[in-house]
């Protein structure tokens, strides 16, 4: 996007330190927008940019001659050196100078750099930018953190290179927004990687998957659909509608992955954290209150809806402790998932050689879609080598009985 120079720009003098893809692009866009930034880079040849900005001898010189300085370096160490090193920016600063940090660093680093700037009566703004390849085309979004007055003072210069300037909140908010966006990006890449492997295991080409996704969701709105829904009063109702579909689809994906020998860690996490993802009440969390009702909720979460109602309720100490302590206190602890605890109990129960107890555990695993039939049968073989073939025969009977019950129940529905 080309912008004609404007004559109504405020008299802000701008500087850019670090002339890589982003910093060089920012300097180019500022020149195109009517600003003529003073620039610095340790590589003099990097200043060979459209608009021929003037190359300064040091960051200190840029600070002395600027009202707004954009710093675009690779990492925290370089940012600290630019500010406080030999001939650093702060050594040439003046009261009222605003430094805008474009580099992606930790919030701890942002705070540290801000404290340094404050000693010189200089204001630091953190500014995440994206996409970097659009820097030279006035095509980036600037996510800014800092006090409102300073952000508004710097806004004309920010708008000199960004197509949109978003004030995200106080210092650190811009960087947090950029990091959150990157988590979505990198997490999505991992999602796509696992999904492509899953599709390929059934003979689907990557291009076919690309075509389907782009045709079904050309604007890419699906990734943010749930987050948007969670901002409305209908969030819980939507989550409850999605939960059974999510459980069914993820279980089917895991079964396909298992049949192809694929590891799907992201699918495992999505399945284990489904309730949290959907923003719904988690029986495990409520069980920490230790009440009998909450313990019964956890019992149902472990063994399937309605299980607690089928338990005898004669009020004996054994039954009371089983409900309130085992399920209210132990199964509900967040350090292990229900699936993790299930596998431990299956191993311990296998050592007892009790087919009925195994069947109860397998019923729960199937009700929660934690393990597929193939995975359960594989577990029988694994356990045989550790508990002995005689006990494994009982394990096999229990697993087979539970699988048959589950299959009959599905057919009935």
Automatic annotation (TrEMBL):
Coiled coil: none
Pfam families reported in the protein's UniProt record: CMD (PF02627), NAD_binding_11 (PF14833), NAD_binding_2 (PF03446)
Every 3-hydroxyisobutyrate dehydrogenase-like NAD-binding domain range: 172-272
Protein name: 3-hydroxyisobutyrate dehydrogenase
Domain of life the protein comes from: Bacteria
InterPro entries listed in its UniProt record: 6-PGluconate_DH-like_C_sf (IPR008927), 6PGD_dom2 (IPR013328), 6PGDH_NADP-bd (IPR006115), AhpD-like (IPR029032), CMD-like (IPR003779), HIBADH-like_NADP-bd (IPR029154), NAD(P)-bd_dom_sf (IPR036291)
An example molecular function term from Gene Ontology annotations: NAD binding
Domain 6-phosphogluconate dehydrogenase NADP-binding: 15-169
Domain Carboxymuconolactone decarboxylase-like: 322-394
């Amino acid at each position: 996007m080309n912008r004609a120079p404007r004559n109504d720009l405020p008299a802000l003098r701008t500087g850019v330190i670090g002339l890589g893809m982003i910093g060089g692009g920012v300097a180019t866009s500022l020149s195109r927008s009517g600003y003529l930034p003073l620039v610095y880079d340790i590589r003099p040849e990097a200043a060979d940019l459209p608009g021929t900005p003037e190359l300064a001898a040091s960051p200190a010189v840029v600070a002395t001659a600027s009202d707004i300085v954009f710093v675009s370096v690779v990492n925290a160490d370089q940012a600290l050196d630019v500010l406080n090193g030999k001939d650093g920016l702060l050594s040439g600063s003046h009261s009222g100078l605003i430094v805008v940090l474009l580099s992606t660093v930790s919030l701890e680093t942002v705070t540290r750099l801000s404290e340094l700037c404050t000693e010189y009566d200089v204001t630091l703004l953190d500014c995440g930018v994206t996409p970097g390849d659009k820097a030279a085309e006035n095509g980036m979004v600037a996510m800014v953190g800092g006090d409102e007055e300073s952000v508004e003072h710097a806004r004309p210069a920010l708008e000199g290179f960004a197509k949109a300037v978003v004030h995200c909140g106080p210092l650190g908010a811009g960087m947090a927004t950029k990091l959150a966006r990157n988590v979505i990006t990198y997490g999505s890449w991992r999602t796509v990687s696992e999904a492509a492997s899953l599709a390929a295991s059934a003979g689907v080409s990557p291009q076919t998957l690309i075509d389907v996704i782009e045709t079904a969701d050309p604007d890419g709105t699906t990734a943010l659909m749930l987050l948007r829904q969670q901002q409305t009063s209908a969030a819980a109702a939507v989550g409850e509608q999605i939960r059974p579909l999510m459980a069914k689809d993820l279980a089917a994906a895991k079964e396909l992955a298992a049949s192809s020998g694929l590891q799907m860690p992201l699918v495992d996490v999505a399945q284990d954290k489904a309730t949290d993802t959907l923003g719904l009440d988690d029986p495990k969390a409520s069980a920490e209150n230790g009440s009998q009702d909450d313990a019964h909720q956890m019992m149902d979460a472990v063994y399937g809806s309605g299980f607690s109602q089928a338990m005898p309720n004669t009020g004996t100490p054994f039954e009371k402790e089983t409900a309130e302590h085992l399920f209210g206190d132990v199964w509900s602890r967040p350090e292990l998932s229900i699936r993790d605890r299930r596998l431990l109990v299956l191993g311990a129960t296998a050592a007892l050689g009790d087919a009925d107890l195994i069947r109860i555990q397998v019923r729960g695993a199937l009700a929660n879609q934690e393990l597929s039939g193939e995975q359960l049968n594989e577990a029988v073989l694994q356990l045989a080598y550790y508990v002995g073939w005689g006990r494994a025969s009982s394990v096999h009977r229990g697993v087979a009985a539970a699988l048959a019950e589950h299959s009959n129940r599905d057919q009935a529905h």
